[in-house]
Write a structure and sequence with these properties.
The complex is a heterotetramer, with two copies of chain A (140 residues) and two copies of chain B (92 residues).
Chain A (H helix, E strand, L loop, with lengths): L1 E4 L5 H8 L6 E8 L7 E6 L1 H18 L4 E7 L1 E4 L3 E9 L2 H18 L2 E7 L2 E4 L13
Parallel strand pairs in A: 1-4
Antiparallel strand pairs in A: 2-6, 3-5, 3-7, 4-6, 7-8
Helix pairs in contact in A: 2-3
Chain B lengths: L1 E6 L1 H7 L2 E5 L6 H9 L5 H5 L11 E4 L2 E3 L1 H4 L9 E5 L6
Parallel strand pairs in B: 1-5
Antiparallel strand pairs in B: 1-2, 3-4, 3-5
The chains are: A alpha+beta (140), B alpha+beta (92).
């Protein structure tokens, strides 16, 4: 399942969906709001395009790393320290594929999925800069 | 001819989430973005350099596909098009 | 928490324990019994030494990758396809540390922790060979 | 002087999980392992080469610490020692 939602993420259900007979390894990435002197975080998405990109990244990861299952849920809206931002759950026959597939997906999301974060601090808000470089974003 | 321009993140804060622009036949994506930006005071300098080019980091999409700045100067809009303008993404 | 147990693993609780304020990323590795024409798997540990090794690997990972939390539970006994064998949950400020720390731990376990697996097939049992090489095992 | 010898995985299947060996002062780890192995028919060839050396892959621990085969020929056992003998590990 690939999704963008306001509600919290049910990691347990994602893991159970990835537990298929041909899988020997499940790797979960759970990105959470870190206590970096922030109070809250506000996330915004270009939803239709972000979903398409998540599907594309999931499909490419599935193919390149022979993944048995891929589940991605990204949250938007107002989040506080400790809240889940993003969960990626993948399974594969062997651990290397599961780790590498998971990493491929998170790096793809950071570089290509139109979602933005604003850190809300006591002294105001600050948009988080895209990580890769100033030309990142969706590949044409 | 109606064209939608959507803004995200700090561009949304500057211009609002979306503007409907009345486009003339033959107008390019870049011309539409320029007019949309001009709807706000100081809007122009948010997206454009003094020499009139889009700032390097500004990302433009046309109906959900990214377009290079050079192409945005060439592609003409059509009825019902959606243009999106946003800063570098920071998901995850 | 570091443990070796017969009971199933409560992944949810391990993840909640790793969700500390300084963490921005949680990575979970869940090793499960793969349907590789086997019926069941029997795991056996040199328990006292295995626990010491798990503690040593966790401590080294914590130090090398600045991990905020490390949780490891390895199961022993009779397991069937889809059952959890081993769960590793780590958290860190940033994703690279979490992924690399998790990987360091699983590789350390494969190479150094005295636990053995026997695959039980219709035509009998087969001990799984150690992965690294025939000289692996506990470093002196 | 009592010494415990523990076996794991296929060595446990061959020798049982543990043997108590009555050791003589000055006996080495390797000598104890040899005597323990001799408790079963064909046991010797499970752990030892024909030339009397331990098979390369056999791992020996002395009170929870791994010892090289060469050292196992030198180290004398003491009352209450635990020797463990096992094949390469396969955890995870």
């Amino acid at each position: 399942m690939i999704g963008i939602q306001r509600e919290d993420i049910d990691l347990g259900r994602m893991i159970e969906r990835a537990r298929v007979p041909e899988a020997g390894a499940i790797v979960v990435f759970d990105g959470i709001v870190r206590d970096d002197d922030i109070q809250e975080m506000e996330l915004e998405a270009y939803r239709e395009v972000a979903l398409e990109e998540l599907e594309r990244i999931a499909e490419e990861a599935r193919r390149r790393f022979s993944l048995a299952a891929v589940e991605i849920v990204h949250r938007i809206g107002r989040l506080k320290v400790g809240d889940n931002i993003l969960a990626i759950v993948v399974s594969a026959a062997h651990r290397s594929e599961a780790y590498e597939g998971s990493r491929f997906i998170i790096e793809g999301i950071k570089a290509h999925v139109p979602i933005w974060k604003k850190e809300l601090r006591r002294d105001g808000g600050r948009w988080v800069e895209g990580e890769a470089n100033t030309m990142n974003g969706i590949e044409s | 001819m109606k064209v939608r321009v959507r803004f995200f993140a700090r561009f949304r804060e500057a211009f609002g989430p979306e503007l409907e622009v009345d486009a003339i036949k033959g107008e390019t994506l870049l011309e539409i973005v320029r007019r949309a930006a001009s709807s706000k005071r100081d809007g122009y300098s948010t997206l454009f350099e003094e020499d009139g080019r889009l700032k390097r980091f500004v990302i433009v999409m046309h109906n959900g596909s990214r377009v290079e700045h050079a192409d945005a100067e060439q592609i003409s809009v059509a009825e019902g098009d959606e243009i999106a303008v946003f800063p570098p993404v920071a998901g995850g």
